[in-house]
Amino acid sequence: MLAMNFRGPFRVRADRDRPFPEIEHPEDAIVKVIRSCICGSDLHLYHGLVPDTRVGSTFGHEFIGEIVEVGSSVEKVKVGDRVMVPFNIACGKCAFCKQELYGQCHEANPQSTAAGGIFGYSHTAGGYNGGQAEYVRVPYADVGPTVIPDWMDPDDAVLLTDVVPTGYQAAEMGGIQEGDTVVVFGAGPIGIMAAKSAWLFGAGRVIVIDQLDYRLEFVKEFAQCEVYNFKHLEDPVVFIKKITDSLGADVCIDAVGCEAAGDTMNTMLGRKLLMQGGSTTALHWAINSVKKGGIVSIVGVYGPIDALVPIGNVVNKGITIRASQASVKRLLPKMIEHVKNGIIDPKAMITHRIPLEEVGEGYHIFSKKLDNCIKTVLIPPS
Ligand code: NAD
Ligand code: ZN
């Protein structure tokens, strides 16, 4: 079958001779992919920032598709169902899943006490192949996959597998109180959804910081927020203090992660940052511009787990830090309601539709933020 094939940092391509996935366990299903996306998280893999990302892997943790085969013990979904599949692989039964920490499932990645299972996200996340392919094996098919309602646009459905709930959880973890000032670092799809979601929790002011004017223009309109380009600010931390009565923001959200833009990784500086654990600029800004006693919510992904953090300021300011891979299954019912009621319109973020055959070009465009790219959808051959 046709599938994305990782050949090493900055080298991905589509190959036609990739093996078809098979049922390996009675709880598995095989899904024929209808749409998949490229995510900012895939860029960390693409940039070589995530340990144990093996050549020959297929990425892709955001996908929807049609079930074409089920294992003998699968009961809740059947062949022919069109499903959205949360990016977390979760057993639904372990101690973490029982607390709805589906991003931290133990059974899906028993080798690790640090990470749960994720489709197409290196061997640190269980070594599963992902959905940037014609077909994908979906473990625990009775747990994650959720039938797409008839009324729902497939473009919205695919964004419910990660982007929408992740942005929402970023705002939720911020513990936003009525009237709070919330600063979101990053105007990618995750930051855009975090800004939009901040209002739903009662924010009084939402500010988004990025370096790309076209994304800032988009989020300004989409989430009705204030936007600033950090390239035009002498120091974003000083600036945020200035516009918050010298106190700092109530809540800061890191929706950037480790060198998400990726465009310095093939430079000397980029390599130096990588050796130090990757760039943590946005996280520094978030910690340093939140008020004393404030909350920093991190959904940005840090592949190198020992990345540098200004921990002294965290202690002195009495900051609360909350961070997680999003728990998609927990949030999915509410996110479906929000789409149905028109509170969010996720598909507005899709700027690029690229045939799966041209996946290499898709990564290049999204990584370099060419052609005003916000979100890229990959279309497998029908
Ligand atoms: P993206 O690459 O599309 O967007 C990142 C944005 O950050 C870019 O617009 C870039 O210009 C901006 N940026 C770079 N450095 C910055 C800085 N110092 N300050 C402010 N903005 C800066 O990525 P995305 O798809 O929006 O994902 C964002 C992050 O969220 C990534 O780290 C991704 O891995 C992570 N993520 C986490 C989860 C989760 O469950 N926790 C899920 C999905 C994605
Ligand atoms: Zn993602």
Topology:
Blueprint (H helix, E strand, L loop, with lengths): L2 E6 L2 E5 L13 E10 L1 H7 L16 E8 L11 E4 L2 E2 L5 H4 L18 E2 L16 E4 L7 E2 L6 H6 L3 H11 L7 E5 L3 H12 L4 E6 L2 H10 L3 E4 L6 H7 L6 E6 L13 H8 L5 H9 E9 L12 H7 L2 E4 L4 H13 L9 E6 L3 H10 L6 E5 L3
Helix pairs in contact: 4-5, 4-11, 7-9
Bound molecules: nicotinamide-adenine-dinucleotide (NAD) and zinc ion.
Can you tag this structure with a few keywords?
382 residues, Quinone Oxidoreductase, Chain A, domain 1, Rossmann fold, 2 domains, 7-stranded mixed β-sheet, 6-stranded parallel β-sheet, globular, binds nicotinamide-adenine-dinucleotide
Structure write-up:
This protein has 382 residues and is α/β, with parallel strands linked by helices. The model is unreliable at 260-264 (pLDDT under 50). The strands form 4 sheets. Strands 3, 4, 5, 8, 9, 16 and 17 form a 7-stranded mixed beta sheet that branches. A 6-stranded parallel beta sheet has the order 12-11-10-13-14-15, sandwiched between helices. A two-stranded antiparallel ribbon has the order 1-2. It folds into 2 domains: 3-162 and 327-379, Quinone Oxidoreductase, Chain A, domain 1 (Alpha-Beta Complex), CATH 3.90.180; 167-323, NAD(P)-binding Rossmann-like Domain (Rossmann fold, 3-Layer(aba) Sandwich), CATH 3.40.50. Helix content is 27%, strand content 23%. The protein has helices at 40-46, 95-98, 154-159, 163-173, 189-200, 213-222, 236-242, 268-275, 281-289, 311-317, 328-340, 359-368, and strands spanning 3-8, 11-15, 29-38, 63-70, 82-85, 88-89, 117-118, 135-138, 146-147, 181-185, 205-210, 226-229, 249-254, 290-298, 320-323, 350-355, 375-379. Strand 11, helix 6 and strand 12 (226-229) form a beta-alpha-beta unit. Helix 7 packs parallel to helix 9. The structure holds nicotinamide-adenine-dinucleotide and zinc ion (ZN).
